Amino acid sequence: MEKITEIPKWDTKDPSPNLKRLDNDQIEAYEIHDLLDSSECEKIIDLMNKNHIPSTLATSDGAIKNSTRTSSSAFFDNEDPFIKSIEQKISEAIGIDVSYGEPLQGQIYKVGEYYAPHLDYFNKKDENIYNQFCGDRGNRTWTMVIYLNDEGLEGGETNFPKVNVSIKPKRGKAACFRSMNPNGRMNRLTLHSGQKVTKGSKYIITKWFRENPVNTHGNSNPSSPIETDDLSNIKASDITEKHYFSSIEELPYLDKKGVGFEKRKLPEHIWKMAQEAYDTLLPKITTEDPEEKWITSVIADEYGNNVCDIMSFDLIPEKRNKIHEALRPIVQEWIGEENPITPSALYGIRSYQKGAILDMHSDNFTTHHAGCIVMVDKKIEEDWALHCVDHNGETHKVYLEPGEFALYECAKTRHGRPEPLIGDWFRNFFVHYKLDNWEYKEVS
Ligand SMILES: [Fe+2]
Ligand SMILES: [Fe+2]
């Protein structure tokens, strides 16, 4: 057959004839039965049982909400010939070279565990997250999931709620779907969930493929973990010892007073800058589009409705940089010079509306290590407390007036506003810094 359009380098070229397209024209999804045999499934389950940790989640708004993904993740030894053979099978079935894959990951879902609706690819509009997770490799293009068990298992289907597709776990069966169309556009309709397991435990392995192969730098190991890009213009890392971490727990506590947060008044010049930014942005306030905002948001009213507007600092990049730089020495002084920091994120002024609840969460532990919450303006009937959990696990309520701010260890200090907002609106912004000498590394 003649090729009518050029197939992108990353795309599937010679897929297995056993791949059966699911009956849906809005997403491109396939099933392949018995990709793995029972002994392979058993062997992988065994490896997963020996080595797993609670799953975490990177989100576009810098939050890690464990209740979105309640499973455990397992990682494999990519040098193990058995794992290599599985990788090879997956690659041949989908028709994409192994070098385009991420390291294989396993997930275990016990009774009651699930994965809320999400997209597998990263939001390009969120530069920090995108650069952090995509770097040289580009976005995720295809996903393949293989179900390792079904006996005694109930629930745990992979659902695509926007297109009414549901895939039932079956031992050895693979399901794959395309996130990126051949023209480079992402398909939002691939939104999917791992339904709650109601009986037994669900074991799956997941393989994500990327736009670019891993060995662009002559790396001979195609299955090695993604190289994380050093995008944070690291200054001190050359002269100070470098640490690696793969979870929040491995990060150091920073507040030497042993609390994790502290309320202060903004210096006059910074408060002026914040007010100027607010004045400029207020006419441009927009509702955060729930489609754009990704489903992983932690802000909603009790029914899950979007009750948050945003005044994006994207519109005033220079002012953003100035505010980020102006607050840096204050945060730096608070955590001490021995832990140098670099600005990592400052999204915009969030305007919470009546009924808003900001769930307790910790911020993205890869890039949000220290920072502040700057209170800008409020029109309320009752003050709205920020809840912060200190190093000892005790929760405190912090009340902020315009011109005040709270320093906090964004990743280590769990925080939120779990009581519904009583009043018209409440506006603040979050300023994040990354530790220069601590680098996130995926567990392999
Ligand atoms: Fe997924
Ligand atoms: Fe947060």
How many distinct helices? 5
How many domains? The number is 2
Enumerate the spans where pLDDT stays under 50 for 5 or more consecutive residues. Answer: 60-65, 216-239
CATH topology of the largest domain: Jelly Rolls
The N- to C-terminal Cα distance equals 42 Å
CATH C-level of the largest domain: Mainly Beta
Q: How many β-strand stretches?
A: 30
CATH superfamily of the largest domain: q2cbj1_9rhob like domain
Summarize the amount of helix as a percent range: 10-25%
Small molecules held by this entry: fe (ii) ion
* Structural class by SSE content: alpha+beta
Strand order of the largest sheet: 1-2-12-8-15-6-5-3
The fraction of residues assigned to DSSP E strands is 25-35%
CATH architecture of the largest domain: Sandwich
Q: Based on the structure, what is the oligomeric state of the protein chains? A: single chain
Round the Cα radius of gyration to an integer and report it. Answer: 23 Å
Shape: elongated
Name the average pLDDT.
Answer: 86
Biggest sheet, open or closed, and with what strands and sense?
Answer: 8 strands, antiparallel
Any overview of this molecule?
- This protein is α+β, with helices and mostly antiparallel strands and 444 residues long.
- The chain folds into two domains: 20-224, q2cbj1_9rhob like domain (Jelly Rolls), CATH 2.60.120; 261-440, q2cbj1_9rhob like domain (Jelly Rolls, Sandwich), CATH 2.60.120.620.
- It is built from five helices and 30 strands.
- The protein has helices at residues 38-50, 81-94, 127-134, 268-281, 317-335, and strands at 20-21, 29-32, 52-54, 63-64, 72-75, 105-109, 115-118, 140-147, 154-155, 158-160, 165-167, 174-178, 192-194, 197-199, 202-210, 243-245, 261-265, 286-287, 299-300, 308-312, 341-345, 348-353, 357-363, 370-380, 386-389, 395-398, 404-408, 415-417, 423-435, 438-440.
- The chain has an eight-stranded antiparallel sheet, covered by helices on one side. Strands 17, 18, 20, 21, 22, 24, 27 and 29 form an eight-stranded antiparallel sheet that branches. Strands 4, 19, 23, 25, 26 and 28 form a six-stranded antiparallel sheet that branches.
- β10 and β11 (165-167) form a beta hairpin.
- The longest helix is centred in the C-terminal third of the chain and has 19 residues, at 317-335.
- The radius of gyration is 23 Å and the shape is elongated.
- The two termini are 42 Å apart.
- Residues 60-65 and 216-239 have low confidence and may be disordered.
- Bound molecules: fe (ii) ion (2 copies).
- One fe (ii) ion binds at residues 63, 361, 363, 415.
- One fe (ii) ion binds next to β23.
